Amino acid sequence: LGVQPQVQEAQPGLRVLADAVALEQIVHNLVQNALQALQRAQFGRSSLMLLIALIDEHTVSLRVQDNGPGLAPEALHRVFEPFFTTRPDGLGLGLSLCETLAIGLGGSLAVANRPEGGAEFTLTLPRAPQAAMP
Known about the structure:
Layout: E1 6-9, H1 20-40, E2 48-56, E3 59-66, H2 73-76, H3 94-104, E4 108-113, E5 119-126
Parallel strand pairs: 1-2
Antiparallel strand pairs: 2-3, 3-5, 4-5
Helix pairs in contact: 1-3
């Protein structure tokens, strides 16, 4: 596929309050889904972007964006339902699990189609307190 993921941090060093294994599972699934969407894309150069930003002093977001085909309007409202899938070989459990994990970590998971094409999943999590400066 030859996709070179890009990572942008709006503010370097942001940390979240999250179980490392749960966070890894969510990010892995979102990136894997984006890569699979890019395999179905029928146009030009594939793009995968991870954007990390501070939403407010207590919340950090991770947006996973691709320029694949995006999601059908009816799928946008169902992607987090257990056993709903848009892939013929999918089980429909990955995004449901990710949303459950995100909520369990005190955050949320949302999806939208990007105006320029592709999909964007946004994970929000509580920001970890900053370490005290000596």
